[in-house]
């Protein structure tokens, strides 16, 4: 049995695939920026002196890291409306990705902070800086430099995981691919092209983030 490839039949649907790709890019950019910001705040809390906040943030981190992303997404989409918190599919998708990346980046950044020599904290006190100022100006920059490659990898993992949000009818790349496949029945062609789009997006995202890291930290990562 032979199978005749028919990529030409996909051309009329290319605008839909590209629109889905652009939606995925937008979602990834917002989730990456917001998730890393949450991670920095979370790492500061986890390394701080407030025991209650440390414990509460620890519960959040463990809950997210030990449950599937799709369950987290479904809880936001289908669970929260039961208590009156309703949102669009796009808002739910972004919130789920923010919460997920925030938890993982918290632990990645915290790992970088924990190996910071105590002398840096002492240097901040000698200079008359508050603990917050010492953290932001002295401790955080070298800590981010140490864990930056791992943080980049986690951001890419979250981007690839965004394909799950198609399950709640958010019109990103995988949703577009599923829709086109249901119309054309060209499963092999549709998902091969979609796979290549995700591969190119992953490579481009990694290179852009590493380039940004070299410009910010001034060295190879």
UniProtKB/TrEMBL annotation:
The keyword Cell membrane applies. Keywords: Amino-acid transport, Cell inner membrane, Cell membrane, Membrane, Transmembrane, Transmembrane helix, Transport. It comes from the Bacteria. InterPro entries: AA_ABC_transptr_permease_3TM, ArtM/GltK/GlnP/TcyL/YhdX-like, MetI-like, MetI-like_sf. One of its GO terms (cellular component) is ATP-binding cassette (ABC) transporter complex. This is Amine acid ABC transporter, permease protein, 3-TM region, His/Glu/Gln/Arg/opine family. NCBIfam families: HEQRo_perm_3TM. Its main location: membrane. It comes from Rahnella aquatilis (strain ATCC 33071 / DSM 4594 / JCM 1683 / NBRC 105701 / NCIMB 13365 / CIP 78.65). Residues 21-209 form the ABC transmembrane type-1 domain. PROSITE patterns: ABC_TM1. The chain crosses the membrane at residues 20-45, 57-80, 190-212. It is found in: Cell inner membrane; Cell membrane. Belongs to the binding-protein-dependent transport system permease family. HisMQ subfamily. GO terms for molecular function: transmembrane transporter activity. One of its GO terms (biological process) is amino acid transport. It is a multi-pass membrane protein. The keyword Cell inner membrane applies.
